[in-house]
Amino acid sequence: MSAAALAPPISVAEDRYAQATQLQLTWWRFRRHKLAVISLFVIALFYGVAIFADFLAASDPHATDARRSFIPPQGIHLFDANGFNPHVYGLRGARNPRTFQLAYTPDPTRKLPVRMFTRGYAYDLFGFIETDIHLFGVEGGRPGESIFLLGTDQLGRDLYSRMMVATRVSLFIGLAGVTLSLFLGVLLGGISGLYGGWVDMFIQRVIELLRSVPTIPLWMGLAAALPRTWSVLQVYFAITVIISLIGWTDLARVVRGRFLALREEDFVIAAELSGASQGRIIFRHMLPSFASHVIAATSLALPAMIISETSLSFLGLGLRPPAVSWGILLQDAQNIQVLSGAPWLLSAAVPVTLVILAFNFFGDGLRDAADPYG
Amino acid sequence: MVIYLLRRLGLALVTCVFISVLTFIIIRLPPGDFVDAYIANLASNGSTVSGEQAEAMRREYGLDRPVVVQYARWMGRVLQGDFGVSMVWRRPVTEVIGDRLWLTMVVSVSALFLTWMIALPIGIYSAMRQYSFGDYVFTTLGFIGLAIPNFLLALILMYVGFRYLGLNVGGLFSAEYIQAPWSLARAWDLTKHLPLPAAVLALAGTAQLIRIMRANLLDELRKPYVVTARAKGLTERRAVLKYPVRAALNPFASSIAYLFPYLVSGSIIVSLVLGLPTVGPLLLQALVAQDMFLAGAIVLLLGFMTVIGTLVSDVLLMWIDPRIRLGGR
Prior knowledge:
The complex is a heterodimer.
Chain A: H1 3-6, H2 12-19, H3 22-31, H4 34-51, H5 53-56, E1 77-80, E2 83-95, E3 102-125, E4 129-138, H6 159-195, H7 197-211, H8 215-224, H9 232-263, H10 266-273, H11 278-315, H12 326-331, H13 336-341, H14 349-370
Chain B: H1 2-28, H2 34-44, H3 51-61, H4 67-79, E1 85-86, E2 91-92, H5 93-97, H6 100-128, H7 133-147, H8 150-164, H9 184-193, H10 195-221, H11 224-231, H12 236-241, H13 244-254, H14 256-274, H15 279-288, H16 292-320, H17 322-325
Antiparallel strand pairs in B: 1-2
Helix pairs in contact in B: 1-16, 6-7, 6-10, 6-14, 7-10, 8-10, 8-14, 10-13, 10-14, 14-15, 14-16, 15-16
């Protein structure tokens, strides 16, 4: 009789559990957090919007038109006398004789049919496929007529389309910033945890230092010092660097803590004794066991990056027009007089809040799932 | 204990030096030097400065010397309380800043106290009634508080106040007290205006602290000594409040050191939205106009104030936590 036959029978489920890789285990535990899974979908949706921003936009986000400034959000009428025929009404703008503000009245005689996959302004899908197909739009309108789901801003630009493009900028600046922070955090946190001694002391003091400085004034100072002549792209890059310069400290702490904990583990000592090189120990043995922690910490750091960019742009010190980001959209809502007349300008607050919430839930769920003792 | 204090003091000093270097870099970052900017500023007003005068000014400000010497001289002036002259306001920087720095601190410190006052009881409640309806409500509120950037919250409150209540919720003083000298009535007016900005600022920090307090207390409540206390017949209130809360308070108290810089930071941007007479709006104006001496002084002073605030909270922490006081860590 072999030893295996004597052992109590192992059920299929247990067997599956025993053979699962770390990644599978993490994923199974993660799936149990309903809110985290929903958040993952929300995040995926947001990045989908970011990738297909121009396709989703209904009209050119940069096209200004003084005759359509501050149009309130329009509703789509789904049916008319002939059955299903989604349309919006054309608008008649007239100046209020007392306030000189444009007031708009829908014109029921002019129906603008809303259709899918209409032709609009030209753009490059994924940056290289030239096309002018958009998800939806109106057909047969006069120039300047379109559908304004979220209304327009002072310069008559369609807020919905701008929001789509802003999503791309804001999400990717967060991603780029967090990547840079991750690099700095893993590098410095790793060195700190691996070597210990005075190197560790020094890096820890630097982190404490950075954390005890109020960040927004510093950012403002650095951002304001960027030359005015820089192109949009250069400013974009510089802002990313500025916000990630502070953000790396949290990640470095997580990485260092993991290194310190793992250094004493049996499997690491075993690898050391078998003569594995330091590189092999780090990348083959240690990294897989804390990678998920680092990912969780990263997803918790991302919202902070997005808030930073939004705050800086909101102040007018971050990205500069013609770049469009959530912060820049909110900048228009800064003035209470403007805001009371056009409250829809605040709508960029919704995606900001949603995406930050989603990243927080997702990061929390992932952190719990990545903890083998949880 | 003395060692701990000295270490903290040393770190605070190093931080101050670090902040001053960063500030100096910020002041020097824009192209050209102070004299160039000054001449350009004068030229825009129609007056001119001759080359010799410019040279004299450069010598006067030590701009012809190496950077390190410039930094040392600038620091020397700062330590004597001379922050230079604001170009835009044409007055000494200290005069321009005036009360604003103190008001910034008043707003930040009240936000700090508010954070504590809200987070502590709610954290205890959430831990004692884990997974109850109230726990879920506070957790949800906490997450939302965490997710709304505070300037956005300020904007929304402004809008709601203006639109539905017909009042202007911004500012720290009623109209008649804005220019008035300090008096009891003015201080009372300030106290009446303080809760709103303080609450806006406190929200995100409160959400964070509630979660920390709840987690700490939950850890403590599972420990055997709590079970013993209950077994011996202590009332629930006493069994929880007497020891577990005190033990859970320690990590809670240490978070204050990170909360304070965060609140000062937040107060800048919230002040801008709510139109508070703190250094926030001044800093933005100075930066946009490249009035670097004013901007630098504000960044520097804010940094120093934060360091002092953090130091005070560290000492408080030492007072609360015997493990630190007796040199356990």
